[in-house]
Amino acid sequence: MKKILIVDDEPNIVMTLEYTFKKNNFEVFIARDGQEALEILRNQFPDVIILDVMMPMVDGYATLEQIKKDERLKHCKVIFLTAKNKEKDIEKGLSLGANLYMLKPFSVKKLVEQVQGLI
Questions:
Q1: Where would I find the Response regulatory domain in this sequence (predicted)?
Q2: Mean pLDDT of 3-11
Q3: Which of 56, 88, 99, 118 has the fewest Cβ atoms within 10 angstroms?
């Protein structure tokens, strides 16, 4: 079973994505901010991480920098899912090593297709 970590501080998005990915046979882990995500990633090695940028504690950019430093997480595909839509934000996310940068609002169906295309 493929594993996915959803990192977002918006409860409605988390609930929708958790339900959708469980329905698509993923083992789902949830974090509400970057710090919580990094704690989960000490013991879990998901295939895909869906990561918001604007979150309390540790933002998505700093979280991704930490993920990329961990040898055990090199295989993880990272998708930024964020409302930050300026060109410099997108460039920053991709330059830090994100595999995809998707904007909110988003299509759940399209996100599932993108995730399945990465793994």
A1: 3-119
A2: 98
A3: 88
